[in-house]
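To close the section, here is one more complete example, presented without commentary so you can practise reading it yourself. The ligand is adenosine-5'-diphosphate.
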Amino acid sequence: MKTANTPSDQRFFAVLNAGSSSLKYSLFAETDDGRLERQTSGGIEGIGSPSPSFTAYDSDLYRMDGHRWEYPAKLDTLLSFLIEWIERFLAPNHLSAVGHRMLHGGTLYDEPVIVTPEVLAEMRTLVPLAPLHQPRILQVIDAIIERYPGLCQVVCFDTSFHKTNPPISRLYGLPRSLSEKGLIHYGFHGLSFEYVSEELKYIDRHAALGKTIIAHLGSGASMCGMVNGKSVATTMGFSALDGLVMGTRCGQLDPGVILYLIQHEKMGAKELETLLYQDSGLLGVSGISNDVRDLIASKEASAKEALDLFVYRVVRETGSLAAACGGLDTFVFTAGIGERSPEIRKAICRQLDWLGIELDERANRLGELKISAESSRVSVWILPTYEELMIARHGAQLASLHDRQKTA
Ligand code: ADP
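Output:
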C-alpha cells in the first residue's frame, strides 16, 4: 500500500471502530466536489472467540464478501486481513488516511489529532479513563504503524464536542484534589452530536442556531443540550454509564448504591463493572431483553416497566438540559431507538407537551424528517446519525494538513 497522497489521485479514507470483540470499518471516497461517499463497510465480529468472521457490504449495504476463521485468530492477523482486503478493493488507488474513534480524550484532547509518537504516548495515559475500550484501539493503531509507518492516522474523541460546556458543569461535588486528577464530567457521543448538529444546520439553519436538545437513543444513550450549535450540557459524565437508562447500562445512580453493594453484597470491582455495564438498563429491569423491539412485543409487565423507565429518564433529563440551555426551540431524535421507534418517540413527546412539544402523529408514524405539528412551539426532528462519516470528514481535513506539513 502506498502511504501518502499522490497529486491528482482521488483520496480514500478508512474509518475503523474497534470495539471489545469487533472491528468495524467503512471506506469513503472523496468526490470532485469534496463530499465523502461510502464505498464499502463491514467488519470483523467475534474477536477473541473460537471462530471470528469477516463480512463486507457494498455501498448499498448488500453483502459482497465474507470469510470465517476456524480458530481464535489474533487481532494482528485479523487486522492484516482487513487492511489487505481494503488494499485489494482500492487497487490501483490507495488510502490517504485511517480515522479511529476513541471514547475518551480526557483533559488532553478537545479536537481530533494526527497520531505521532508523542500523541500515542499521551493517549496511553488515558487508558484508566476507559479501560474497556481504549487499549483495543491503541493496539489497532500500533499494528497499522508497524505495517504502514507512513500512513496518516487520525484519532477522533467522543468527548471533545463537549469542550464548550461551561467549567461549572464539569465539576462534581467532590474534593478539588480529585477534580484536579481528571475526575470530572466529560460527556460522550460527541461525534454523533456533531454530525447531527451539522445536518440540522444544513436542513434548518434557524433551528440549529437556537436552543436544541439532541437525544441519541441507541443501545448506548445520551442527550446533549446545545445553544447556537455548541454543547452546553450532556447527560453522560465521567464515564459512559451516567444519565439515561440504556440497553444494558444503568444510567444515573445514587453512589450510595455502589457503597451498599461493596459493603453488604461484597461485590468487587469486576463484578460491579459487569453489573453496571452489562446486566443493568432495559435488560436488567425487564429481565427479558436489552432490545426495545423485544420489549414492545412482550406482554410481560416488567417489559412495559423497563420502557416506561427509559421514557421517564429521557423526560427528566430533557427538563434538566432545557434548564441548562435556558429554554428549548428544537428537539432531535437520533440513533437506533430515536430513528426507528415511533412508540418511544410518541411516549417521550407526550410527556413533554408542557415544554411546547406537539407531535404530528402521522409524520411520527411514517418516520418523516420533521415530526412536530405546525402549531408546535418546539420543532421536533428525526435525523439519522452517521458517526463514521464525521470521523472520515475529520480524517480528510487532517490528512490535508499532514500532507502540507510533509511537503513544507
Ligand atoms: P449502537 O449503540 O449499538 O450503535 P444503535 O444506535 O444501532 O446502537 O441502536 C440499537 C438499538 O436500537 C437496539 O438495541 C434496539 O433497541 C433499537 N432499535 C433498532 N431498531 C428498532 C426498531 N425498529 N424499533 C425500536 N427499536 C429499535
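Once you have examined the C-alpha cells, check your reading against these statements. Residues 190-386 form a domain with the Nucleotidyltransferase; domain 5 fold (CATH 3.30.420.40). The CA atoms of residues 92 and 196 lie 34 Å apart.
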